[in-house]
Structures are given as C-alpha cells and as structure tokens.
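Working notes for the structural subgroup meeting. M.R. asked for a predicted model of this chain before we commit to crystallization trials. I am recording the input and output together here so anyone reviewing the notebook later can reproduce the run.

Input as submitted:
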Amino acid sequence: MGSRLRALMRKEFIQMVRDRRTLAIILVMPVMQLVLFGYAINQTVDHIATVVADASKDVRSREFIQSLANTGYFTVIGDVGDAGAARRAIDEGAARVAFVIPSEFGANTLAGRLAQVQVLIDGSDPSVAQTALLTAETLARARGIELAAAGRTASSAIDLRPTVLYNPSMQSVNFMIPGLIGLVLQTQAVLLTTFAIVRERERGTFEQLIVTPIRPMELMIGKILPYVGVAFLQVGVALAVGTFWFGVPFHGSLALLLALSLLFLLGALGIGLLISTVTSNQTQGMQLAMFTILPGVLLSGFMFPREAMPGVLQAISSLIPLTYFLQVLRGTILKGVGLEALWPQALYLAVFALAICTLSVLRFRRSLT
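Returned structure, recorded in token form:
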C-alpha cells in the first residue's frame, strides 16, 4: 500500500509542476492576499482630501488652515475660492471635505467674537464622514480650550457649522448597496464570460464551432452579447432591490448610469474573454478570475477607504476599473451628479474597455489558429 500511495503522490506532484499556469497561481495568490489584506484593511481614516474656500485670507485664517493639516486627518489640496466651488469639488469627488471661511473670520477672531466656519462633508462614505466630523469638532473645541487658557473668552472660539451632504444620516447601507452593485456586476461578467468559452473548449464543442462558416468575430460577439443582456438585467434588479427594499435613494439619471454601466461591462467582459484565451479548463479560469477580482474588492474603495491605504496601493487602485465605476454609482445614486462631474471616470472606463477588448480580440483570434 505504501508504494502505491507514494507512486500516486508522485504522479500528482508531477502533474502539478507541469501545469505551470495553475502552479503560478497557487504560489502567487497567497502572497497577493497577504499583501493586500495586510495593507488595504485599515479602518483608520486619515489624509482626507480637503479644500478650503478662504474669503478672509489673513494670518488667522491661514493659522486655522494649518491647524487642519497638523491633525494628520485632513490633507488640504487647495483653495477653491468660494462655497460654490467647494461644493463642486465634493460633487466631482476631488475632495471629501470643504471648509468655507467667511471674510469676517479674522476680524471676529481678533475682536474676541465667535468666528463661524462652515464645513461641507461628503456623507456617501460614512466612515470618512464620521472621522471628518469628529476631527473638525475636536479641533474647534481645542481652540476654545486654548483661548480659555490664554485668558480669552469662549465667545472668541470657532463656531463650526457642519453639513453632511448626500447621506445626512450617514447610514452604511447607502454606501454599501451601490458598491455591491458594482462588485456583483464585475464578478458575474468576468466569471460568466470566462466559463462560457472555457466550457466549450473542455467539452470539445469549441473546435466544432471553429470549423463552421461562422467568423471569429461573429463567434466572439455571439458569446459575449447574451451576457451583456444578463448583466443589464442584473443592474435593473439590483437598483430595484436597493431602492425599494433597502430604501437607498436614487437622485441621478438612470440613462446616464446605464450608459456608463455599459462601458464598465464591456471592460469586465473583455477581462473574462482574455482570461478564457490563456486558460485550458474551468479550474484555471476560476483561479485567474479571482486573481483579477480580488484587488478590485480590496483596493477600489468598496470596503475600505482608499485614503487609509499606502500610496503604492492607491496608485494601483487608480488602474482598477471598479474604482471608477464605484464613483459613478455613488455619484449618480447618492449625489445625483451628471456627466459634467463624472466625465473623468467615463473617459477612463471607455479607454479601458477599448484597450482590453482590442487585446482580447487579438488574443482570441490567435487562440483559434
């Protein structure tokens, strides 16, 4: 029995080593998971992108802006001029927080009067919003304590006027449901397309299709289009469930969301098609598909704020289509913004879809020969 068992184990190890693709995935996947989980899973939110609209423009307003940066929680990326521009920066996703400092801020501070500061906070991500709100309130209280210690009256402290936009109650379901829609669409599109072609190859029917009069482009389009229809149906069902069951408000344009969803789906289907051309069985296809899906789950901002990630992972996340599609989903569903705010995301999704589909077509044609 021992010799037979050793022979069987030896055979399995030989097959494992010979299957270079599966072996590479087996060795690389755990390392990638450890690195991503180790760095991406960080609930501490800091370096929140912040803009200021400083109408006072004196030494006291500059001191206040510097105190924001000194907390480590706010990263001031610029002075936008007025409250309207500050709101647009949040609508477009360029900033998460905006401090609007009125022109009388410096004079009120110097005279010992209450100095008001308006704070606009993007509430679409409750964890970021709660951190920003708590830090701003703590900063205002700290200033009051400093003034009291210096013998000044409490009336010269900062009167913070916070406004949480898009999700005033900061409910996590309003943040998660749009993200789940993007994640489900990506997973379904990649896996279904991968299995559709690999399954044909495993059953031996792929070769039968090749010898028919059908052209390679027609074969590829015929395999993909049904899944586009299924994916759009999933978008409709997911939106209906999110709106009517979970009560997530929909403020934007449905037509715009569907159009940008098409761009995202074309890119995801292209990834699935590309995977199918480099794998020979469904096991390899599943492993490679998960290899491409996992970074999107962890780095796109679906679960963990991108602000909490190291700079290298933030740079990697900027290459992931789901990162931009989540901004589209939350922008249209929660913020109600239009293409004027989402055109950078739309442009990236279009370029990615064109590039990955072109590469997939070339690789698909080569796999037919």
